[in-house]
Records
---
Amino acid sequence: MQVASGSAVATLIPAAGRGANPPSAGRSPGPARPNFLWISTEDISPDLGCYGDTYAVTPNLDRFAAQGVRYDNVFSHSGVCAPTRSGIITGMYPTTIGTHHMRCQGVPPHFVKCFPEYLRAAGYYCTNNSKTDYQFDPPFTAWDECSNKAHWRNRPKDKPFFAVVNFTITHESQIRNRTPQMLKRLDSLGPGERHDPARAQLPPYYPDTPEVRRDWAQYYDLITLMDKEAQAVLDQLEADGLADDTIVWFWGDHGRGLPRGKRWIYDSGSRVPLIVRVPEKWRKTILPRNPEALQPATVNDDLIAFIDFAPTMLSMAGIAIPKHIQGRAFLGGRKAAPRAYVFGARDRMDEAYDLIRCVRDTRFKYIRNYLWHLSRGQDINYMNEMPTMREMRRLHAEGRLQGPQKQYFEPTKPVEELYDIVADPHEVNNLAGDPQYREVLERMRRVHTEWHRDTMDIGLIPEPLFDEMKRPDGRFEQTAEPVFTRMTADRGRKAEGGGTVTIVCPTQGASIAWRIGGDVKSPVGWELYVRPVSLRPQEVLHAKACRIGFRDSGVVTFRLGDPARERVTTTQTKHWREDIETAGLRPRLAKVKEADHLGANATPSWLACLRDARPAVRYWGAVGLHASVRYPPDLSLAQPALTTRLKDSSVVVRIAAAHALCDWGDEKVALPVLVEALKHPTDKARLFAVIALAQLGEKARPALAHIQALTKDSDDYVRRVATTASQRLQAKKG
């Protein structure tokens, strides 16, 4: 296979047909447009034969890679599906737009769109089959079709398409699936396709037991099943005579769904496969100066981030890339220079909080642990169902783990980690304290700091506080109904008495969909509004509007002769970003967390934070004291300071202070504060409180009845933590 980076000059591909983008989209005349097909699968690393994995059985994808470009350095910005897909669909970091916590129902800034909307505006028929998981409800303007029946075959004749097909067979849940139905599917694999557990090459951080090997082998069996599913889609494309006109991507949404893979931003959780096949007729169009970079059996080793997918699709379609998009195009007319670094983030994963950021170049990985005092081995109920995870926990409890296998359960994490990926691909030898790598550490630390600042990372704002900023009192804002305005005579239908209707929505950043007649309850058949609509006298025009993170508007109707408004005022709702930036909160919190590097000497800094006017700063002061106090003199200062915070105006500060004081033996005064927080109307505040009680272990026993009451809480994550904590306390009592 050949190694190529691939450079390009501007390629401008026009839109055509109904719904084409207006001139502002930045298109120019040129050749007809290609189709695009994404084949995505869940929870896999580059564990394919075409990536040199001799254990893998993936003949179809290996053949596909031989027809296209295999990208070797592609990374998710998150090790789990929802934040990952949020970044893919918007081209922006979740830590910038507030979609970084798992299943958090974000409210991005008004200018953020799902990128297929730009393709639809340019005349593409866009279908998604069928996963969304964007950290917000998918806006109905994003796709022409979004369901398990969505297919390019449903498009209007001769219309170019962008189609997504997502496979779930490789999902984490299927690795531990031993049901008769799954065993039957696995038995359908031939003798040369099943994976022998005895031949598995386990990473050094896993214990070598039959259960672990069985999980590993089944994971690879699932990839083989997926390989067949991928070929079936390619066969459909070929049968339709579309293979020569369709650029096909195959990719995985994050790393393998096994412990220390999925959810983590080590390479095992963030590095993924990406294969792109560009038919010969389109190579010079996509990379006119270097079409050889797209020829069969090519390997590309550029660093590519998932947030680069959106701008690359727009670039290949000849559509101007909106300035707010943070990704860089790696193909097409607006191809950017190759990256020097990729970045990643881990925040709340299901019911477990963590706060980790990483920077990676082609050789080194830098990790910054902002909650360094927490073990990697936190409980996540869903993850605990995996046999491999159970084996790791069992052997840890028995003291039988060795070497790198013990790292997962270390009581704390280093503030910083640095790995030489070339020499240490499994990232088990931390070089952060090695003087030989001091310059590398300082460079990567500086790059992280700049990225954290420049992308306006809001991860240091405690989630209960952020939730109140983005959606006060938990109320969703409503998108205003569209308004019909500026009706003019339609020259082309003058004899019929037709007219042209303009549609606007008062809600800033809203998108509008319209249809003439038809079933307004059907999700299919709505056109994205990009220009005034021509209407005949007998026709009925329907319209509705949406904005990401808001509730959709109702459907409104217009007929010729109905009154139309002359002017509509745009409603500019104050956004959470304004509050954060006006208060200077981000840089203040970043400065506060520099004290993590001071160790035991950080106590004065944390004490000063407790006097700050901003609750987020006081919260980190309490957490910092709790994490850093190791000596009696420090405790003598910290204990009375935190006692005064048991009556803080902010619930997150009260919880953090009470948690620390309970740990230090002051349960009598602090435990009632945690119990009271369990009744808070905000679900994430209750989650903070019940996590604190769960981490206290036996000291939380007086609150057992209150914890048990939360096993029926309205919030799933609160229920999970409460159930685990109550079961453990009851087991110890027995």
---
Amino acid sequence: MNSKEPSPFVVRQQAALQERWPFADTQDFEDARRGLIATLDPCVIRAEDGRVVWDNDAYAFLSGDAPDTVNPSLWRQSVLVSMQGLFEVVEGIYQVRGFDLSNVTFVEGDTGVIVIDPLISVETAAAALALYREHRGDRPVTGVIYTHSHVDHFGGVRGVTTQEDVDAGRVPVLAPEGLVEHAVAENVYAGTAMSRRAGYMYGAALAKGPQGQVGAGLGQTTSTGTVTLIRPTVDITTTGQVEVVDGVTIEFQMAPGTEAPAEMHFFFPSYGALCMAENATHNLHNLLTLRGALVRDPNVWSKYLTEAIDLFGDRTDVAFASHHWPTWGRDRAVGFLATQRDLYAYLHDQTLRMLNQGMTGPEIAEALVLPPALENAWSTHGYYGSVSHNVKAIYQRYLGWFDGNPAHLWQHPPVEQATRYVEFMGGADAVVEKARASFEAGDYRWVAEVLGHVVFADQQHAAARELLADTYEQLGYGAENGTWRNFFLSGATELRDGAFGTPVATSAADLVAQLTPEMLFDALAIQVDGPRAWDEDVTVDVAFTDDGSRYRLRLANGVLTHRRVDAVEGADLTLTLPLHAQLVPVVMGGLTPEQMAEQGITLDGDASAIQRVVAVLQPGDPDFAIVTPEKE
């Protein structure tokens, strides 16, 4: 990508921010460096085939003063987050940071070590465990804890333990109730769209450097290795539940519906250490992540932080999380949690106040300003979430997409809107010339708005594409939010160089294998091309001999439905499978009737019935257009 220099408007903005924010406060740097035992040199992690899945050394440029192409606040955060190595939290608890988007934590027990949140990839998790063992001894893994249901907190689990050890009871896996169902649903049901957008969110196609990807605020980026999942063996279901793992007592607090649908905090009384999962990190988090997800609830989020203070505050000597660095000292830890609590509560309460005054989401996002005490705390800055898009998420949570204005009730879709706008404004060439004047005036938000219409009306208009790319670039340079920067610069990249697709898919084989039959049938139903299936009427019964369960699938009226049944009769086809695990390749069309027979799967009836279902499935497109109306 042919990057441009920052405009005078962006340069002046960066200089003003240097004066505005408390850059003389270096406490975060002291905390981020504290307890460093060793680094990995080089910090480059490869898969078995030699492919690089993590390269923290690519961020070596993050030193010194911020360049004019990067918001100085985001530069500061990226410098902090790029620090890598093995760190002591307290004696007996250690973290490896800078090996993935998230942290992995090691808690020493009587005979081995408990692993908290084994990163995204098998390769990065294994490298982290190896670094820990190099400096703390070759301790066996005696337990695994998943704090919540996002892939950066369980995906590398087979890099630290095995299914055999878990099945044998040697390694319990603890997680909040419902974790697998939420993890699988998020990564499979809407996984294609989320993964495509995540490529933008984490700047997957951007070169790392001052004019490209500098980080994502919460972590630098995501690793690209092998994603796995081992089902939990111990469900945490209630606040106050106590478990002892390898001699270590752990007190749990449930926190569902916060940063993840299934999430929990927990306290180690023998260490005075409180793990806050991802609900108290050194930034404003997302209430609606830009890759897409269910809207999170800042109201309950703030209440669970209050409850954590009440439950554990007077015993906490250090608070740590699954991202960023710990906070030491009882008063500082409780103060940090209280600031985070007040941040989410303020956003929630003020958005509702203004919403009930008749303001819309975009209007509230422009009007809402954090109080000085929150604004001046570095841990509240919008490096990952932002006040702007979080306020709109709260509005969406309570009132949905419609703002009540009838003019917005039945608008044209984007291409039809764009065509009409451009015609009204005098044609594409005239709009581009007017937009160029707005660009020269530094009104980049408006330029992006109007040129977006031109590109959607005529995606081959070279001048519009070039100026829109330049505009996204300037917006990226000025963004404090790491994911906003990545979105803007990724948009510029696709306009200049073409689509880069989906670099990493989250629907890994290990995740798909965890689908229950009901979840798999739901995943198939959302792939049915309705119009192609209008005239189909086919019934397939599925019976499992391993547990005796039976299901009836019916494709009719363009809808694939399923239900449990007691008897299998009257179907076009009956499939009998020895094991649940065999269902995935069968219904995804991956096995021929001959291959099914070899695996002990029997077919009774019309063998073509399953193919009739498969034939109307339309899998997601991992390369769908984002900044243009169609793929090129």
---
Amino acid sequence: MIGAVTFIFLLYFFNNELQEKIQNKRLLDPTIFYGNSPHFKKGDLFDAELIKKSVSTFRSRTFDNPLMPEDFLFGEGENCLKFTSTQDITISEFGEISTIKCFIVHWPQLFHPHFEKQHIDTIIYSSENIILGIYSNKDITPSESDPHFKFQPIDDFFLPPKIIAQYLGEEPILYSPQTLSTYPTHCLNAVMAIEDSHFLEHKGVSVTGIARAFLKNIILQRKAQGGSTITQQLVKNYFLTSEKTLKRKFQEIFMALLLETKFEKDLILETYLNVIYMGQRGTYQIRGYGAASEYYFSKHINELNLQECSLMAAIVNSPGLFNPFTRAEKSKDRRHLVLQKMSENNFISENEFNIADNSPLPQVEPLENITSIPYFIQGVQSQLKDYGYDNLEGLSIYTTVNLDSQKEAQNSIQTHLEFLEANNKTIQKNLLTKNKKLESLLISIDVNSAYVNSLIGGRSFKASQFNRAISSQRQVGSTFKPLVYLTALMNDYDPLSVVHDTPFVYKERNQKWQPLNYSKTSLGDIPLFYALKESLNLPTAKLAIDLGIEKVIDTAKELGIDTDLPKVPSLSLGSFGINPKNMAQIYLNIARLGHMKKFTTLIQVQDKNKSILWNYQSEESDFKDLAAIQVLVGILKETARTGTAQQISKSGFIIPTAGKTGTTNDNKDTWFIGFTPETLTLVWTGYDDNTSTGLTGANGAVPIWLTYMNAVTSNTKKNTLEPNDFNWNQDQVEKKVITEDDLRDKDILPKDNKPFLDTELIFQK
């Protein structure tokens, strides 16, 4: 009776567990993170290779075929106009119609903000690969008389988002589940031949297989062969523990038999191939054939040939032992055995065996690895936690990361830090005698959308998982000064107002404070704009005291500072710690000319059923003095032209840029926060333990900023002869060109013997 009750209990328990996980194909229920969709605008270069890769699993068609979901075509000439708003096509705009080319794709529903329903997109481009127009029927409800070809111009062409990371709990994985129909026959035959040749015949357990393995292991006095079927392997790996006991073996056999009574062989094999462990790529587990195919061959699973399928089956047994990149000989021997088994089972001919057996193994790991992505994921997880998402299991999370930008940020930091360690004596000494490695962080945000394009929390995630971009507190130094000057501009000052670059001593409650300029010199009476672009301490501190420290703090709070600030004069010089992402938010609000918006690493969150749980809502508010912020940005442009970051303009970077360098006491922290009308990028460089770097913002942070921005704005520079300036409100402000004579007439020409160049500044009307 006890046995019967136990049997019924086990039957009920295991049946429910199997039913839930297998039927819903949820053996693995990872959290999936997607990058932001790559997109193109009119005037951009048409990237045919990137687009072809994005539709590699779609069907290529011609104009003779109707376009169904997951179809695409490349065409040229007048036929392209069938998929556009033809009234918008003119000879004067596009030249001869016969010379135009087009790419047309019918997207399926992809459950993403840009792919909420099936639609067709069309790109019209020239023979020089310049995009001339983009059209879509996404936002049109087709009429009965014209159900298909009804299009309108759109601003952006989006490609489907790419998976950037997957996690099982805290474990990062690579996972790409596939339907069984996707697999080449060779792949299915290979894995059955080597792992379970009677898979299609047994009922979950192979008695002859167990007996054969038992006898062989006794004869050789070691575990030389296993007797588990594919069904047992599936049960063992994903329902049970790894303990080697009779109890666990009994559970395995019982559940395998039960599994085979509940589900078809096809579903069992499909599940097995989707979740089996297939190796390790750094910190990432490779789960299933889909991800393994991309990792080992840079191919989709449906493209694999016989030798590749046989190698995959070889790897299944022991991914570490038979890794073709690190154990080539053992891998080749195991593949030979797989091919032998396939031949014995009449799955392949002798000729096929010989060709596959003599084929080379894949070479070094082919996939590019953006090792800094975990830093961005930490930023996303931090934002999710703020919104109350602690359990992320099974969620699809669409992020704002631009993979190209993230890669360029990673490379820009690594390149400059290595340069400093090879060429800067102070940095070299710290590395060689104290084993101190310089660190850096970078946050880059699209000014218009407030999307974070890239986020780097350190030079190497493998070496340090501490995310300096979101978790550190660093003194901000001179990057705080613009808030002092903004407060002044809100209180009847303008760019030519006189400020005093003279030494002084501030006394309060028996305490003295005596600031100094970085150069230890002073210039006397100078214009306000000059004091800011040259980052002078004396006039900044005096200005803050005259205005009132409380007013400066109020300005900082309205711009988004989220920490308590000390009510002391040294505040004006940034002598306090703050989180870098908070500084990025403050400068984003300045870059947006006072139209304030919170930046985001998140676009959308969906549950496992693709229901939307959270959507980014663009909430904006205006700073109380929009004109003053525009005047400030006009001054900050001079930082990059003739001020402390003038190497930006001298390097030939032609896009209008505003920003501020920052260097703290004893050179412990070096900053540059700079922005164009489209992109804001913050860079910090220093040591975690506050060791002096001997660097300034100009040589510690600006070079990283410049390398990164040159890379991510290359398309803009190629296609724009005169990049757009900031969007000044002509009802509120006006431009004026200031000459050396203008300053001499006001007796505020700086006495630093530097040639004064004509300077365009912004003034309130």
